Amino acid sequence: MLSLSCILLAVPLIMYQVSGASPAPSSITIKEPIFLQVCPFDVKTSVAPDRESISLTYTIPQAQKSFLVKDKLTCVVRVTFAFESLENSARVQEIEYQGNIASAGIRSVDTSLVWATPWGNYAPALFKPVMFSSSSSPQLTTNTTQAWDSSCGKDNPYKGASIVVHTVFNPNAVVFGTSATLEQKLKLNWLGHCLTVDYMGWVDIDGNLPTGW
Fold it and tell me: Which segment of the chain is annotated as a signal peptide (predicted)?
């Protein structure tokens, strides 16, 4: 018969083996069509093969000079996706941008994210602005505010999560060019559980108490 001390010593080994498993879901399905509240560009969505990120690809058409100088261009896109298993949640701490949009007259972008639920939204997460030059190398921006976790997959009628991506494209008053594309990759940090979901974090985009979506 094993002694009590032997049993206790065996427990950490078992826990270590379990924690080594990938917390990413076995599948992610984006619910189409994505919901565009406002956006002057064509937007497509895709999921990385490893399920560690969701990408939004913006196709920016050639714009007239006066249009770019006068106005910031805003896109508000809601992406709802289902995943397995449902006992999971995610947060976004980093966004990677890929694309040479400086040639299209875009100087920088500002991004904020909001996890949405049928009962209310979480407080927005704000990311550092990204500046664009003639280089098309990937650029990484990080969250500057509290990183809220998504709601638990099993708690939503769509069996997953829903995120609203608010992107402001700031014009370049000097350079005006042709069409371009920009990939906005939301890096998903999967937690593998729902233990840290804070339902008290629900507010609307203006920071008010939830009134429903």
Answer: 1-20
